[in-house]
Amino acid sequence: MTHPLVRKLELFAPLSDEEKRVLEKAPWRIREYGADEDVLSEGDRASESTLVLDGFSCRYKLLPDGRRQITSFNIAGDFVDLHSFLLKQMDHGVATLTPCRMGALSHEVIRDISERYPRLARALWWDTVVDGSIFRQWMIGIGRRTALGRIAHLLCELHARLHAMGLATNGSYAFPVTQTELGDALGLSTVHVNRVLQELRGKGLISLRGGTLAIHDAPALQEVASFDAAYLYLHGESRDEHTR
Amino acid sequence: MTHPLVRKLELFAPLSDEEKRVLEKAPWRIREYGADEDVLSEGDRASESTLVLDGFSCRYKLLPDGRRQITSFNIAGDFVDLHSFLLKQMDHGVATLTPCRMGALSHEVIRDISERYPRLARALWWDTVVDGSIFRQWMIGIGRRTALGRIAHLLCELHARLHAMGLATNGSYAFPVTQTELGDALGLSTVHVNRVLQELRGKGLISLRGGTLAIHDAPALQEVASFDAAYLYLHGESRDEHTR
DNA sequence: CGAGGTCTTGAAGACGATCAACAAACGTGG
DNA sequence: CCACGTTTGTTGATCGTCTTCAAGACCTCG
Questions:
Q1: Strands A29-33 and A100-106
Q2: Which residues of B touch A226 (CB under 8 A)?
Q3: Which of A202, A223, B89, B196 could bridge across to A238 with cysteines, CB 3.0–4.6 Å?
Q4: Cβ neighbours of residue B182 under 8 Å, at least 6 residues apart?
Q5: Which nt is closest to the CA of A67, judged by C1'?
């Protein structure tokens, strides 16, 4: 089975056998976490970057009054803090949503790889800029979209990302996110998330129970979300020859 | 006078004379824009990245119904689309707020520089990840902060960034942003922006007229914003030795 | 089987949106 | 330099989405 990071980075550009080997044979420090554990806290100084191998995790920021904003969900193949390679001090925390297997790679190794393999350096850079694109998309959701559109959009996004990693089948995927967590991600209260989910169910667009989400009417869901996957850069059209 | 990009990147790590020269002598394509002009539109395919040399610009995304979300303000030294080096297709537009002088550098040149000067490659990468950090901070603002805190926070952020580039004196800086634009950046209506600004003025925290913002009580403003500049990575504490 | 977390429902209230109109500022040309 | 038109800022009134508070049902897991 191919390494999640290899699969993820090949969304950007095909890797040579040597480049794949470099990533796979790198000295990953593997660690298992339970559900709802803190992986990294805001203010920590990182000396390695952590990749999700399996499970769901999230980045979050806390307000002084204890309110929380989840800034992203991370799935297999996602680095939770690749930026810590350059920004040592964490500006956000990272927590697991489900039990997770994580792999950590020291910044020394990342630096070494990125100097010896410029294409891998670019692929890693690419990973961080796609992160940024997703942040921009979330901003428009939180800032300008109605609650219904916001939730629908998130469900579309996760489907697209999980599908690209081979983790969704038939418009259905594991979605182990509580309604409170959803609210924290979308800037909504738990109560309101609950009501909007019921609305989506009532319209026959989705069903969600037991941590599994099923999209029943993808076109309609994308319509209420005004979802366009381009910002995820999951496909080759957005690539350029010289980066290969 | 030092090149805005050099000044900006040296916030990350000191550059050698050669590295500075490479940036300064690079084949920038200089172009002047008037106020409220489009620089780049969503969907464009970029073959160069554009840097603000002078003036104010912003990134924005449009919703199908015409509503707009501004995702960042860009000042001298900021690339508006360095990520387009890796993500050819623009996922957002770029527009000027004031007349601007911009410098564009072709992706070929960026690639060449980043392969020949790994430290410059890291500095450019750093620029994009700081971008991401700012996006995360905006998300918590839009998602979880009250309108008052949101506006206050933005004013603090711009002061910190402009100050780092030598563009603020005495807590005062050029702020040529209309209330409509402010609303589009913060996810608020123009009317509400107006009222909150009056509240900030009434409390004696700021004054704003003729496109100039003056912060009268920085500690109090930071208090209502719960502002902590760490996420901007403007100072050396967050650096690591091996990246120098 | 029990306990804690999660989901659901109802009611009341707040923050901010929208609509509408007017005042002030700006800049452009006569 | 003033007149005028357009953009920006200001104010009031009403409305709606979403929040908060509170309580009960459900479910999952030890």
A1: antiparallel
A2: 63-64
A3: B89
A4: B151, B154, B188, B193
A5: D19
Query: Is any atom of nucleic acid chain D found less than 7 Å from the CB of residue A146?
Result: yes
Cβ burial of A148 (10 Å; 0-12, 13-18, 19+) is middle
* Residue A95: φ, ψ to 5°: -135, 150
Q: Which residue has the tokens 């490659």?
A: B121
Three-state DSSP state, A26: coil
DSSP string across B25-53: TS--EEEEE-TT-EEE-TTPBPSEEEEEE
Question: Of the candidates A165, A173, A151, A166, which has an alpha carbon nearest to the alpha carbon of residue A221?
Answer: A151
CB pairs under 8 A between A and B: 152
Q: Tens-of-pLDDT digits for all 244 residues of chain B?
A: 799 999 999 999 999 999 999 999 999 999 999 999 999 999 999 999 999 999 999 999 999 999 999 999 999 999 999 999 999 999 999 999 999 999 999 999 999 999 999 999 999 999 999 999 999 999 999 999 999 999 999 999 999 999 999 999 999 999 999 999 999 999 999 999 999 999 999 999 999 988 999 999 999 999 999 999 999 999 865 444 444 4
Sign of the four-CA dihedral A105, A108, A109, A115:
positive
- ∠ CA A99-A101-A103 to the nearest 5 degrees? 150
Residue B170, CA distances (Å) to A31, A195, B166, B209 in order: 49, 49, 11, 16
Contact A60, A92 (CB under 8 A): yes
Gap between the Cα atoms of A201 and B58, Å rounded:
38
Global model pTM greater than 0.85: yes
A195 CA: nearest nucleotide by C1' = C8
Q: Is strand C within 7 Å of residue B146 (CB)? A: yes
